[in-house]
Design goal:
The protein is mostly helical and about 80 residues long. It has helices at about 5-25, 30-35, 40-45, 50-79.
Length: about 80
């Protein structure tokens, strides 16, 4: 492993982005983000399916980060 700090930065990014995308659609931060969109798009973004899709992508990021963390730990142990 040539640059382990790059892998750690990637894992940190996956964790941060995953938690953000998982939680923000259901918080009060989501409403101000939709003000600049047209009314029809805003109605879709405020709906449950759109929020669920963004949260699902956040969960996906966390899973990918977890898998890569396991690979990183195995690589560190074997070297």
């Amino acid at each position: 492993m040539k640059r382990p700090w790059l892998n750690l930065l990637y894992l940190l990014y996956c964790a941060e982005a995953g938690v953000y995308l998982l939680l923000v659609p259901w918080s009060v931060l989501w409403v101000p983000m939709t003000f600049h969109w047209p009314d029809r798009v805003r109605a879709v973004l405020m709906g449950g399916p759109a929020r669920g899709a963004v949260s699902a992508f956040g969960l996906y990021m966390l899973v990918i980060g977890g898998i890569d963390l396991l690979r990183f730990c195995r690589t560190i142990r074997s070297s």
